[in-house]
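cron nightly-structures :: item 1 of 1
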Amino acid sequence: MSDQFDVVVIGGGPGGYNAAIRAGQLGLSSACVDSRGTFGGTCLNIGCIPSKALLYTSEMYEDATKHFAPIGIRASVSLDLPAMMAHKTKVVGELTRGVEFLFRKYKAEGIVGQARIAAPGRVEVKLRDGNTRTLEAKHIVIATGSDVTPLPGVAIHEKRIVSSTGALALDSVPKRLVVVGAGYIGLELGSVWRRLGSEVTVVEFLDRITPGLDGEIAKQFQRILQRQGMKFLLSSKVAGIEDRGDGLSVQVEGANGDKQTLDADIVLVAIGRRPYTDGLGLDGLGVARDPRGRVITDAEFRTNVAGIRAIGDCRDGPMLAHKAEDEAVACIERIAGRAGHVGYDAIPAVVYTAPQVASVGKTEEELKAAGIAYKIGKFPFTANPRAKTIAATEGFVKILADAKTDRVLGVHILGAEAGDLIAEASLAIEFGASSEDIARTSHAHPTLGEAVRQAAMGVEGWTMQM
């Protein structure tokens, strides 16, 4: 087995495995090193994929118990949590094996072990059997992803106090769940357990949920989650957690000085993620990082040390699997002498609750801060025929377009299947489309996608569908 490669990628997540695969497609010899044992990174193993499996199955359970009767379906159902978890595990296994298949197909070698960059062009891998394998490479790509951000003073042991990892593997439905952090991860996992029977309280340090989302969307989103039964304590922080033996006591302090104690069976800490670069030897190599620990790179993903590049969560930008995938492809294409490109303005973000929230481009707040004049088109799902037929009328589509050129600057969707609907908006932004381009493009009837078209028509005031 050769230890000489054109590219060695450290990290086997969406950024890492796609980089190794793309290298193989372009005729470059590549290796992908990951310590987990199964490839796919946090996303496939303990993040995006298992959470979406539970989000789907818990939504189906709630539909059967609460939403079937109004549309004429009588059903008697019960929760089988072990079977639900088995479905999750099955999906994860199939997808991780799929990564291994692609490695074989494109002649990329997957190596399980702990990697350290010994010098530019040399990676030492401590294998599971205790031996060390030294890899030589013209190019090294760091794709080590991110890890859970800890809550100061609180030990996460994945039993009663859990991260997203532990929240995906609970063996029973907690009666009372406290979620620390009102971002995407906290709200998604909080919604899973609320549907299955938990009383969920979300504690957020800021005065709003989902920081970074369009403010109008976030407010309406919070109202919907509250109607579903989720409670919020905003402008508040968790000052401490006490394990009483029969449960947890969570001390919460408000920005105004008020204090209260919450009883909980499980506390989920979901206050964000931080770049993971431990043990890589970056300090010894002099690889520059910013104050948040992210590897600093140029537009071609090159670090300040020749032959070493970085992609994904461990560098600047949104910590999203698809952003890492895009950077993986662009990085390897640059290495191969091609014109790799990432359209950062067109990277969507999705919250997979029910209803979903999806966003791409600029928010109103960002446009105002930049002094950019814009027009707004909005359309509610209550007026969309398809939404009515599937009893999913909550939310709306909002399109922001440049006041002078009509170029689409941002699209924000709160509603059913928003994560799929946003793809059209991402394409529009990538192509530099105008709102009129969307408005004059035929959309099949009746579909949820018509709401996007109607919002685009609304930019110029000619919305027609009711």
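cron nightly-structures :: done
The chain has three domains: 4-147+274-342, 161-271, 346-459.
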